[in-house]
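Deliverable D5.2: sample structural annotation.
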Amino acid sequence: PLSMVKWGRWPLEVVCAAYVLSIIVIPHTMASHHSKLFRSTMYAIDDPEVLARGQRRDDAAVALPPGWTRYEDPLTKRPYYFDSASGVSTWELPQPDSISTLPDCAQDMVKSAYTRCDPLSATRSLAFFHVVPCKGGDPLPPTVMGLPCNNSCNPGEYLPLGQPNCAPCNPGTYSVGGGVLFTNWEHLPVGMTSYCRFQLEADRSQPCSAWVLNGTYIDSGHMRGKRLVDSTLEYKVELLRAGVVMFEFKVDAERRWDGMYFAVDGVKKMEMVSYQFQYTEVTIPLEAGFHTLQWVYHKDVAYEMGEDKAWIRSIEVLGTQANVDFCNVCPAGRYSERGAALCTLCPTNTFTDKSGSGTCQPCNTPENTDRPHMYSYPGAVSCSPSSACLPEDITSTYGPCDESTRTRTKSYTYKQPQICFGGAELPADQQVTCALCDPGMFREGSECVYCPPGTCNPNATVEGSSVCTACPSGSIAKKVKYFHKAFEPEHFQKLIEDGEVSTGCANGFCGQDGWRPLGDMIDTGVGNGQVADIWLSLRVVLETDGEVSLKFSRRSNNEENLLQMYVDDRRMWSIETLQAMAENDELLEFRADVPSGIHIITWAFHKEREYSWMEDDAEGQSPAGGEDRAIIQEILVTGVSEGGAVQCTPCSAGFYSDSESSMCRPCEPGFYSNEPGLPSCTPCAKGHFASAPGSTACLECGHGTTSSPAADSCSVSPAHCRYAAKDGITYDLGGLARVGGPMWGPVNDPNNSMSYFINMCTKDSSNATCMGRDGAGM
């Protein structure tokens, strides 16, 4: 009980429940009719003094139901009504039988709310109230007081109501901690809005779609053909403690000029990004308090590139609560273990058709031998009957080469994930001849190794190093690298572990985690949804300019499903044009030039719905198009720093090489080579010069200047600075030379606002004559 002498300010315990004041405080106080909670102003209505000052009287003018009495608050003069039989008080005029129609109070009508923290004691209370009018029945639980305020639950935990400590989420549930996570984009979350605005008044009559919901992601809308427009996704949020905002995004827009940026309270926290192929997570710290978070896709005045939009897959804000009161339930098709921060898709060939599952059930068990064999893709809510295995469902792998017998073991396995059963059986293991080493390689024991630098081998072979022949001077052995071995599962996994290859699936429903190796090829797998991007990235290091070539095919009845290719952030549109003109399942070849340096080559099989009204089924897979896929049978990269040469390539004019070299070197200044394939460069003759490396010819020195052999410039001294005119007169200009001093000038050119400084007969002048914008000599 509280004793409040005056109400100049709300007592702390009342402030904490202000938002439920009309439900918790007033009705509860009057309903109890025995509480002395508000002595001074509300007056406990069982107090004799209050009854006297309230001027109790029966209301003869208004017909009240039996048992009801009218009172008047002495301070506000407002009438209220009390029913002696039920103990209910109300400000509203009671109607006949209003109490008898109320349901009995029950536990499922009870809600709770925490008070705000008392800064003096660092504690708070948990109050309970009925969410609907009721009478009698189950009483309200007592208020829990003295709970600590500073509890912050971690992801995977929650704070049980009325308890002082966090507890782990039960299996089948999850929690992100004291925050919110948005991954379902079927509708905008509460507090989030989307809008777009044109910067020019003349354009504002055009339609603007803003951000578009797509179920598993949200994108910035249709911006093609528009100019100077911002499409904004905005979220207003209050953080009770310092936290972070995390979001996954990607963008494909005109480089440098269009793209997405992120702002907090109008201040940019992430600069504009024009291209990001894979979903990337960004984390931005936030202070406690109210914030406006904005994801803005900006288009400038002209030009378009790529998809011309940004995508966001998830947004998570931590700090909106100190903790959560309960854990969220995992949906069907997903499960979680104890203390989970997120739910996990059921693995292949398992399912769960119930929400809140802690485990997934296998599609097949030893007890279910009386029914057909079943299968499922990840995230399934049910299993489907397996079809009989066909020969094309079987792939092969190879063991190491035995040096003594030059044979290796060929084993067979079903393609993974295995969705067939019975039918074609796996052949027995076989001993087969070791595979030929790729061109540019030779056999060393059981392994294939690259030919030494400066040598080449144009043919596949089983022979030793003798097949590698030296390239003559003036030519190079440009290295190449085949990636056939990467198609075998063990090699593919090693390349992933070494960071040379990465793969994944995004932007829709994925049957597996990216491309799958099948021994003699790689493909995008099965079970992917109608919408998905299955990507494969290859890191290459080129010591010379080179190219990437591949042989591939596409199996899809949907013309929108195409294999895309990127060199770093540059999209190779011509590979998509090639597919659009080809037949389905036709073997195609494609080459792309790549400059020297470190590059990321990415292939993405982009799957798109054939019709806008089509939807994925309950499990996210396409009923008819789930087996659409892209297949790569060969990848070859030339100019790599690690590889073997297949031929000798003559050096271009201006370059040279000595014997057994893998790189052409440019002629140094003062030297030149005027035809391809030269083993060395020629020095410039006297009176000539070559100032740049890689010169194909030498230039003659200007009038009055001269040079020694192999010179990179011409020079003159003041003592010999003479100019012979055509009339036979010789001018001696040596007196105009300012050796080490300031140059002559400035000479102003009014046509282009340029100023010129000139020195005569010498290059040795003061470096401070011309001043740059920073004030330093040029």
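Annotation notes: Residues 489-497 form the longest helix (9 residues). The helical segments are 12-15, 21-24, 26-32, 48-53, 489-497, 573-580.
The annotation will be released with the project's public dataset once the embargo ends.
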